[in-house]
Amino acid sequence: KQWYQRRVRAPRKGMMLSVLIGSGAQVFMMISVTLVVSCLGFLYPGNRGFLLSMGVVMYVCFGSPAGYFAARIYKSFGGEKWKSNVILTAFFVPAIVFSVFFVLNLVLWGEGYSSAVPFG
Question: Model-level pTM?
Answer without folding.
Answer: 0.81
